[in-house]
Design brief:
It contains five helices and no strands.
Length: about 150
Amino acid sequence: MQIVRTIFVLLGGYLIAVFVASICVTSAILTLATFEEAATETLLEATRIYAATLLIVFIMTVVTAIPGFLISLVAAYALKKDSHLFFTIAGTFTAIIAVWLVFGPLPLSDHDPSEPAQNISILWLALIIVSGSVGGFAYALWHRRLFHRA
């Protein structure tokens, strides 16, 4: 029964952290993006755009954050750390790894190795890293709430 509880805490915490980070990134994307017809959109259309963007960002984040999350778990177990600060910093590193996976030169990527990889602006990089740290903090809240329950 303990293994089921552990899997629930880890998987649930991962999905919550990814969802929180996805909300941060989606809000930043739609806030900073300029839409020519933004003034003519209805609330329903804007909600649909937000939901669709959130779904895409969530799926992309779920896939790209797995390596950083697993490294964070191994580090937390090896160092016997479970503080809010540790998981917030781990979320930052997870976001950096995810950005590297998406924008960095990967040997398995389908772009020509002689071409430079896609560029990401410093502002977007900062927003993604901050979103990762917020997601890490959300994971810490979930983790400490369930693991330290009497």
